[in-house]
Amino acid sequence: MAETEGKSFVSYELRGNVALIGLTRPEKRNAISDAVIEELALVIERARNEAKAAVIFGEGQHFCAGLDLAEHSEKPLLDSIMGSRRWHEVFDRMQRGTIPFFAALHGAVVGGGFELASSCQIRVADETTYFGLPEGQRGIFVGGGGSVRIERLIGTSRMTDMMLTGRVAKAEEMERWGGVNYLAPAGGAIDKAIELAEEAASNSEFSNYAVMNALPRIRDMSSEDGLFVESMVSALASMTPEAQDRLRAFLEKRAKKVLAD
Ligand code: 1HE
């Protein structure tokens, strides 16, 4: 674990195949400073090397209050741009990396905290969770990938509303909008996220990689190009020894069936 001036803001634990990554700066509501981003970068790489899925959560009352505004207010223009580009780089390693990330959300998921959550493949929110994009109120703009990732999840109109009017969306509303995949009782997001991560960790690594990397790219392509790329990825997946083993297991009645409960 990287430490900044003797203090670490991110925790890491490997539990079976699942890496648990915690934001551990509750005294500042897990606000994301440059040091936090660099620690996140390290644990994301570590998780990619030794886990098959990861869960990210926040300690204290809130998941994350977004960008560290104290640090940000002192940055010259070019440093601000490079800071934003660094967030993109690090979050991209989650969204289009090799292992899926599950966000376990509670309390405030605000600004850059929402951007971090939107870089995960799946979001689980407990009933205390609420989402806000107060960038307009702070005189800034999303800079951690939100204009692409949050917009893809909830659409331009809802995101515009949140940014212009300061509208806050609670967990259930965000689930209806497409920004949350699962709702959990208060305090229950982490257990649910771990359960889902364990499920995903049991898939073929290539299939998970294809889901994470092909789907968002196909989303940005024309239908014709998307269908072509789909055929390529599909054929590649079928060629892996893992696919051969798993297909055989099903045909020999050794594999789990797809049942409704
Ligand atoms: C912070 C931050 C922060 C708290 N940067 N220090 N994000 C925001 O605009 C959200 C700002 N934060 C809040 O609205 C509230 O803090 C919360 C609703 C999240 C939590 O409220 P509460 O009452 O539990 O805590 P608090 O008393 O407001 O904050 C506790 C401490 O955390 C306090 O510091 P202290 O030294 O006075 O104890 C706060 O100053 C500090 N703190 N949030 C720095 N964000 C890549 S672009 C992304 C752009 C954005 O993310 S914009 C959204 C920024």
UniProtKB/TrEMBL annotation:
It comes from the Bacteria. GO terms for molecular function: enoyl-CoA hydratase activity; iron ion binding; oxidoreductase activity, acting on paired donors, with incorporation or reduction of molecular oxygen. Its EC number is 4.2.1.17. The keyword Lyase applies. Keywords: Lyase. InterPro entries: ClpP/crotonase-like_dom_sf (IPR029045), Cyt_P450_CS (IPR017972), Enoyl-CoA_hydra/iso (IPR001753), Enoyl-CoA_hydra_C (IPR014748). GO terms for biological process: fatty acid beta-oxidation. Belongs to the enoyl-CoA hydratase/isomerase family. This is 2,3-dehydroadipyl-CoA hydratase. It comes from Pseudooceanicola marinus.
